Amino acid sequence: MENLALIMQERLPAELIAFLRIAGKEAEARGQRLYLVGGAVRDLLLGRPNLDFDLVVEGDAIALARRLAKGEGIWGENVKGGERV
Length: 85
Description:
- The chain is built from four helices and four strands; from the N terminus they run H-H-E-H-E-H-E-E.
- It is of the alpha+beta class.
């Protein structure tokens, strides 16, 4: 099995890697776990391009998404049952 962190470094834009690191650190500071899930993981392993990433949070995902959107100067929107950043 290949190291997913290494694959991500090789195949993803630096800006996305930086955001994922910030998101992970923010989640950790809140005592939460953050996971990359779905088709993005599959596509990374298969070497397919995909910049549509889904993250799952154990805990208050809406508060984390709002904090990330505010802190990184990116937009967020309310969606039924959650927050999209």
